[in-house]
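Throughout our pipeline, every protein is held as a single compact record rather than as scattered files. Nothing more is needed to write down the fold, since each code stands for a local backbone conformation. For reference, a complete record is included directly beneath this paragraph.
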Amino acid sequence: KCGAAMSVPSATFASSSLGSATTVPAAARVSPAPTASELIPPIAATTAGALKAEDQPFAAGVALAGMGDRAIATLLDSIATAILMVPLGMWAAVHWGGVTPNGFELHDTAAFFTISMVGILWFLYYWLFEGLFDTTLGKLVMNLRVLRVDGSKIDLRKSLIRNLLRLIDGIGLYLVGFLVAVLSQKRQRLGDHAADTIVVQRDAAKAVRVAATVACAAVIVACFIAAYKLHVGAPVTAIAEPGQISLPPGTGRALNQQTSSATGGPRVTRAEMGTDSTENFQIIGASSEFYTDTPKIVCVWNTAGVDPSVPIKSVWIAEDIGEGAPPNYQIAEKSASGFKEGRFYMTSPTNGWPVGKYRLEIYIGDSLVKQIPFTIKQR
């Protein structure tokens, strides 16, 4: 199949000459050894020195990786990179809002930052690990490595080409890459074809595979620990709970215009702070002073002359809490629209509120209409 000449052992030939009186028995006669051209089929003989690249044998002594092993390795690598979203998302939620009592939710800047960073780290992980070590954590666990077709070590340039095409190979949960590899003689996906690489079984010690498995588990645990530490001490993002008394559909604008003309425009008619509120938005435990262990700080509000499409927004600010945050640090914001009354509240961080001065700002649209200062103190 490869077109190389077969090795033929040398033969001992009987001595004879034409016209000699000595004859050699037929049983002792030996035919001359066949030449290479007689052993190689005509087509193979003409191409033995000029095989096409796709017909050349890959590195001797290696076995192509099975598709099942490669799929498991990809799954492990995907988990090891996707889990980075946990600490990155928590960090973004702490800085741009979105911390919830049990985790975080991402919107706008926080979501863009988290998704972008995870994508960048995902690419760097594959590119650097394969370019420098010819493997990844997932491949180590499954005893796989990436080589050039000729068996030599892959470099950063080849790894860059191979992994840039993951964007295409990964379409449909790597369906494109899987189909291309299944139909390829050397089980190469698009990235492998472009970089002239193959994925092969490696002969690694059992201890190496165990270490890689432990490393994967350590990455997952470390991400959750980092996220937990960020969550502890971070104030929960303000939550908006609008009341159920909304302006009648179709008449809200007219009513708002009448109210605005009579009173001078959209405004907050009531804003009270306390430790809780009733279902009909009456404040409970009204106060402007709270303690570090206060479970919840609530503000109930009413508005007048506000168009239903205009949002009512709360911005919670830590004016001065010492080393806990810079002066006038925005903790979080939340908004609701289409309602005449509602409540904003924040729940206590896991280790309690930092002592200091705070304020709640209420906006109608982009206009600041109310500021409510409050303090946190020790019992």
Notes: Confidence is low (pLDDT under 50) at residues 10-31, 35-56, 242-263.
